[in-house]
Write a structure and sequence with these properties.
The complex is a heterodimer of chains A (331) and B (321).
Chain A lengths: L1 H16 L11 E5 L5 H17 L2 E5 L3 H15 L3 E4 L8 H10 L1 E5 L11 E3 L2 H15 L4 E7 L5 H14 L16 E2 L3 E8 L4 H14 L5 E4 L4 H12 L6 E5 L3 H8 L5 E4 L2 H16 L11 E3 L3 E3 L4 H12 L2
Helix pairs in contact in A: 2-10, 3-4, 5-6, 7-8
Chain B lengths: L4 H17 L6 H26 L7 H19 L3 H24 L5 H20 L11 H8 L1 E3 L5 E3 H19 L1 H11 L1 H6 L4 H27 L11 H11 L11 H20 L8 H28 L1
Antiparallel strand pairs in B: 1-2
The chains are: A alpha/beta (331), B mainly alpha (321).
């Protein structure tokens, strides 16, 4: 038994040494670390890979689920000795120490959600509060007379989600911009013209997201608009309304660039969406990291923010946007 | 020893394979991290092992981790409690939860699966309500308190012994003594093998079963505290999700039988280590895509169980002939 086991190990060793992780001599390697595995991050990954191919460097993307897993992913990348990491923060206030550990060992930048108190060199992304505000504007366009609205979102514990939602609400209530404000999700938020009946979270569970929409429609059949704030929310809202034959009765406003969302805008079933540019997040991340790793600090702007602004997509510009996106994704 | 041969071989194989695939795997920093993770998850596995030995199950572990892991920083940071009182309350909550489960299971004769499944839902829901679904953590403060989860004794190079691992070692020794050197340990195994017979021979089985759930929930509470002290950030909707399954898998892989009456502490520790090293391997080896994690972990665990069974059968055959 023992001999056989030894032989097995040896054989395995020989097999595997052929396909080991050889660092192609002198090639720099960088990593993108996301907040989960959803379509949005797949676009980001593609952007990073394209930059990697262009610069001749290795790029890998880790998509950990939640902050405990993200910590592990970052530690493992430190172990591996990559030359730089671009990470999307989940809880910037409390992740300072792990980000500090990364920064002590390799280059650190942030994307999508910033961690301004960490030792990150630069942030690549947009302001979620402003993007939420844009989404609020789209709702105003769709419902100029005001009305009752329900918000659907993955998680509210994530900084970007919180700020995005607050941007929408503050836009409707015509408050002065202040991204540190927070209206509790359990309460009905009543503005002059717009009322937020509820904010429903689904913990990035698609089945739950669908049930949320169905249950809210049962509870509030006269709701005027539904807003999906994570990429997969708008298609799910669309799907449920289509199933019920209620398309057109309830306005849909989206966020991000899911294909179903874009198709919905083309077909006139979704009023509009606010898009970020995840491709640019990944692409720019790798380019900035590589510049820093090769000693070029000039890429970093003085305010340490690399703004990639969000855009409003409506029926008039959806086709041009979609075409451009497909070209980037090589479709 | 027979019970843990399969899982031990699996650990060795995973170690050798990963070391071949990435030369950084054996580095001091990475090895310390493996010890730290084994420490954190191992405390949960240790707890569930007690319950499994009595032929029970505890599905609420992840939610207890969530409740206490989010609750402690919530009390300390938001409500100004001292760390000592928050920790005491955390452990008390663990104790009460275990007592609650144990009483329902022994006095009302409810099935452990159902009782703890309800617990899984209740404690997570309570945490989310309590914290308004807000991320919890200590920010940049409470460095001394957090040492319990982040501290380490430095040895050579970047290799060090993390506190959570040392805590696990101490708890394991205590658990081993309890299970193997005291009469109560024998009672636990006896009632796991045959509860009726154990009761008829004069063992207060109800009390022993309640004790096992109390130990399990208190260790889950302690684990939850160490997790948050270590990681510093917890999202109530997801924190600790699936941790009970990792704990149960580690215990079963380590030789605890779900049919009760069997289990070793060393096996549980090795089982925990296998799970953590496997995940580390998937992150370290670039061509292993991280979204294949569950596939790879599942296949390796299945292989380990199959191998274990084959080895056992061969040994049994030999004894017969």
């Amino acid at each position: 038994m023992k001999i056989r086991f030894g032989a097995l190990l040896l054989g395995l060793g020989i097999c595997l040494s052929g396909c080991g992780d050889k660092e192609e001599d002198g090639k720099k390697s960088y990593a993108l670390v996301t907040t989960g595995a959803v379509g949005f991050w797949e676009i980001c990954k593609k952007g990073g890979e394209d930059a990697g191919a262009e610069l001749g460097v290795q790029v890998e993307t880790l998509m950990p689920d939640g902050s405990t897993e993200q910590r592990k992913a970052l530690e493992d990348l430190i172990s591996k000795g990559v030359d730089g990491i671009s990470v999307a923060a989940i809880d910037p206030e409390n992740q300072a120490d792990i980000f500090g550990e990364v920064a002590d060992n390799t280059l650190l930048i942030t994307m999508d959600t910033d961690a301004p108190k960490s030792k990150r060199q630069v942030y690549i992304g947009m302001d979620n509060y402003n993007a939420g505000w844009m989404c609020g504007e789209l709702v105003k366009e769709a419902l100029p007379e005001g009305g009752e609205v329900i918000l659907f979102i993955g998680r509210l514990e994530q900084e970007n989600a919180k700020r995005r939602r607050q941007g929408v609400i503050d836009c409707w209530r015509e408050r002065k911009k202040d991204s540190s404000r927070y209206d509790l999700p359990g309460e009905v938020v009543k503005g002059e013209k717009y009322t937020v009946l509820a904010t429903r979270t689904d913990e990035i569970n698609m089945a739950k997201a669908k049930e949320n929409v169905e249950d809210e429609l049962t509870k509030n059949p006269d709701v005027d608009a539904m807003v999906g704030l994570f990429a997969y929310n708008p298609p799910i809202i669309l799907d449920v309304l289509r199933e019920r034959g209620d398309l057109g009765k309830v306005k849909i406003i989206g966020f991000d660039e899911d294909e179903e969302t874009l198709q919905g805008i083309v077909d006139g079933q979704i009023a509009g969406t606010v898009v970020q540019d995840p491709y640019a997040y990944g692409n720019q991340s790798i380019k900035v990291l590589h510049a820093l790793a090769t000693g070029d600090d000039s890429v970093i702007p003085e305010n340490k923010l690399f703004d990639i602004p969000a855009r409003m997509i409506r029926k008039d510009n959806v086709e041009a946007f979609w075409k451009d996106l497909n070209e980037k994704l090589g479709k | 020893m027979k019970n843990i041969r399969g899982i031990f071989i699996t650990l060795v194989v995973v170690y050798v394979v990963t070391a071949i695939l990435n030369d950084k795997f054996l580095g001091g920093y990475n090895q310390s991290k493996q010890l730290e993770r084994t420490g954190l998850y191992g405390i949960l596995s240790l707890g569930v092992a007690f319950v499994i030995i009595t032929r029970g199950i505890d599905l609420s572990i992840g939610s207890v981790v969530c409740l206490v892991g989010c609750g402690v920083p919530w009390l300390v940071v938001r409500h100004g409690w001292s760390p000592a009182s928050a920790v005491s309350l955390g452990l008390l909550v663990g104790f009460l939860i275990g007592l609650f489960h144990g009483l329902l299971i022994t006095k009302l004769k409810l099935q452990p699966f159902v009782v703890t499944l309800c617990g899984l839902l209740i404690y997570r829901g309570a945490t989310r309500g309590l914290t308004d679904d807000q991320s919890q953590g200590f920010g940049s403060g409470f460095k001394e308190f957090r040492e319990w989860g982040t501290g380490e004794i430095e040895l050579v190079g970047k290799f060090s012994l993390p506190y959570p691992f040392l805590i696990l070692v101490v708890l394991s020794i205590a658990a081993w003594i309890f299970l193997r050197k005291t009469i109560w340990g024998r009672y636990l195994f006896a009632l796991g093998n045959n509860e009726e017979a154990a009761r008829l021979s004069g063992i207060n089985t109800d009390r022993m079963i309640i004790l096992s759930y109390v130990i399990c929930s208190m260790l889950a509470a302690l684990g939850g505290m160490l997790f948050i002290l270590n990681g510093n950030t917890a999202q109530p909707s997801a924190y600790g999700n699936f941790f009970e399954l990792y704990a149960i898998a580690a215990a079963v892989l380590g030789g605890c039988s779900l049919r009760g009456g069997e289990g070793t502490i060393l096996g549980v520790l090795i089982g925990t280590a296998v799970m953590q090293v496997l995940k580390n391997m998937i992150n370290l080896v670039t061509w292993l895509e991280t979204h294949m994690e569950f596939l790879i972990v599942g296949l390796v665990l299945l292989a380990a169980v199959v191998m274990d069974e084959i080895v056992k059968r061969r040994a049994a055959k030999k004894r017969l002939t």
